[in-house]
């Protein structure tokens, strides 16, 4: 190999699992460094997919071949003996989602792997090893039984506002031989914390990820070898919280809210000894349990109450006297198949200090965190035994400075800590979270200071993969608000809001939102998990709910919400190159498509819609929904246009699964709908659809349903509606906003999209900022609307705004799945002088940073290894393009492709480039 630097990042598991990277030169390999956010343990896939990244100094770096070796031990791998799989040299440029193709994997197998790569710059040495372990692939791999206590106690209460205390489990066991390896597999429902010899295992919180527990339950896996390195007695301890299992509103509206029973658990601790023997410690009726501990209640809506006087010192350590504890009961299993949690667990991802503390009245303080956040408050306090400190949470304040809680509905959102009374005490809840900016603290002994309080920010441990800044502060503020809103609503599933008595995974909120979010966060595993949730919620006849997992039984059979099933799968393919998701879910998606056609087709159109263009700006700022029919878009139009677009997606999916018959079927159905749609809704004399709302015209235009001779007039009607009737403001709701910004830019009115993005008067995203919002509101009029549906941390109205930021302002778009080829085409005509943004794709970092002067454009781009980019320079004269001050003719890594609409288009290979473009004609 030539003397060039080359880095190889290895990723392993069902998804892109950042495991390690090794810097490779012609001399040596650098030290191993772990970069994973989650643990590559317990992957219950017999065919995991492997990925790596190339980073080298040579421009245009491309992979030409690879060789993967997988061994059952690190020693064997280092010796070159790949007993599980040696791919041999494979002539391919594939470096993401490469399926394992070795010997069949069995439960609990260990797999160490490495890769060697051939590039157009030579051959690399072997990468440093990465690894994964196989989980429990079959139901019968689990030993022992489910245990719990299927009852409440005298201090509990079961009604609309149920109070159920946490359950504490313990088990002592003995190891008399030297332990070689030990793994724990745990299902703790609804939520758990695991301890060995008094030490908490793992950084996860609020684990495991929620599911419909009758369909699937998630288990987590931990390597606990280090905790068993001493022979003798050991203690296992588990605390079970309620989570979504013992629901937030037990015995309330059973026709709507699904319930599952009392908390329960199953655990296997596998121990391999140095002498070759193996032992499994599992859950059975030798475990002891008590519910009479310090966590007196824990409820996601209402909060957690902790009485430190009831603490059980040493309960999770060897030698604790548990004679008064109960014998654990064997209980009915929840019904769902145990599956490994492959999506990242929730973690405490950041810590915020309060901005201010203000005395509201006698012994009551208002704390301002300065940011609407999701998580909880950690307190430091010192006082007399029995003193109760109450913390109540809200997103905003009333005029008198007290908490505004009307928009929380009946959620009590209150934590209570009762002091033990022994010196300085620290406390934070375990099994709840809150959406808040403000905290009302009462009963605090003395006066709390800023140093006594910490806001712990909690969301799924996803890497932030995107960044954006510009010379327009309002654009930057909206972007930051979006980041905080998206992060706060990642809770093992994408939820709608983190604060009120809802917090549900509504499909319609993420139809396009998942796509925009994927630029900011590595959300691949989260949304792959959510596809499984949706599939599990599908009824045998094909119906898909509006909320999945179906914690609320809403099977309304509209198109626009359940259709998210298809758009999420498409996002995973486009943004991450995930073909598997489409292949896995294709039969279920097809079944839903057929179900809707068979049950709701009438005269070639789909008749069923429930929500309309949800949350358009109403005619009165006090309203939640508009009552003006001129602002509303007909439901059948929304359903039929959306169904048409979903049929087009299914055509592409049929191609991927090689089903030509299905493809022709979907094409024919789409053609029928398009014809019927235009017959019913297109007013040819006026060049408008239906009642001429922006959404009514935008959907058929964006979906390419408009006959060519009417496209210009239909678009002119959109422009007229926005500029004249709406005075340059937005008038779309959840559905229309999903295509609005791109729809305007793609039709040559990026200036109008820019105006909508930078408006600060009502209704707009900037209006929210001007009114002090630090997240995105549920309503355009979130400061004045009826509080019964007025979340101040919601993401559904983002629509395609973030996609527009990346694809039209920064200029980063996937042209081939997973960003194998990138389109870099910022809209330099906009009144922006400077934009800098980046996205870390599966192949590596993509960056676009540009600064525009009066007569010159400076543009720095970064293209990751093993990819290419189509770069659009805003000039038809190649002589005006320079790189590092030199002409680009013959420049390494560049190849001229074409001229298009005043642009010079070049294919650019991997590397970092500093271009300048002379803008003077």
UniProtKB/TrEMBL annotation:
Coiled coil: none annotated. It holds the Pfam family Ig_Rha78A_N. Its EC number is 3.2.1.40. The keyword Hydrolase applies. It comes from Olivibacter oleidegradans. It catalyses: Hydrolysis of terminal non-reducing alpha-L-rhamnose residues in alpha-L-rhamnosides. One of its GO terms (molecular function) is hydrolase activity. Residues 811-885 form the Alpha-L-rhamnosidase C-terminal domain. Residues 464-808 form the Alpha-L-rhamnosidase six-hairpin glycosidase domain. It is an enzyme of class 3 (hydrolase). Keywords: Hydrolase. The keyword Hydrolase applies. This is alpha-L-rhamnosidase. Residues 177-349 form the Bacterial alpha-L-rhamnosidase N-terminal domain. Residues 360-459 form the Alpha-L-rhamnosidase concanavalin-like domain. It comes from the Bacteria.
